[in-house]
Amino acid sequence: LSEGTANAASVNISRILSEAFKCGGTGVLLAHNHPRGVALPSNQDILMTQEVQKALHMVQIELIDHLIFTEDDYYSFNASGILTIDYHC
User: Fold this and answer.
1) How far is CA 81 from CA 26, 64, 65, 88, 89, in A?
2) How far apart (Å, rounded) are the C-alpha atoms in residues 38 and 52?
3) Over its length of 89 residues, how does the chain's per-residue pLDDT go in tens digits?
4) What is the pTM for the complete model shown?
5) Closest among 2, 84, 14 to 46, alpha carbons compared
6) CA-CA distance, 70 to 20, in Å (whole number)?
7) Which of 59, 42, 55 shows the shortest CA–CA distance to 7?
8) What is the C-alpha separation between 77 and 64, in angstroms, rounded?
């Protein structure tokens, strides 16, 4: 849904929601790569993931996971517990 540079990519939450609706999706899996780096998420990766998850939650769509890939490694937000958000705050 998005292309970026070696250091950044834009994320359009409206487009993510639109594509999920168009497909009749009940869950979304996000993925991106860190072509020159470590698979660990940046602060911006974490904030963006939380914003996407909140938006999806509002329309009853689950964010299944957000994966970050490098040439020989990957990181799972779900496995790392980052996808646990308290929506009552």
Assistant:
1) 20, 12, 10, 18, 18
2) 22
3) 555 454 556 678 999 999 999 989 899 999 999 988 899 999 999 999 999 999 999 999 999 999 999 999 999 999 998 887 655 54
4) 0.82
5) 84
6) 26
7) 42
8) 9
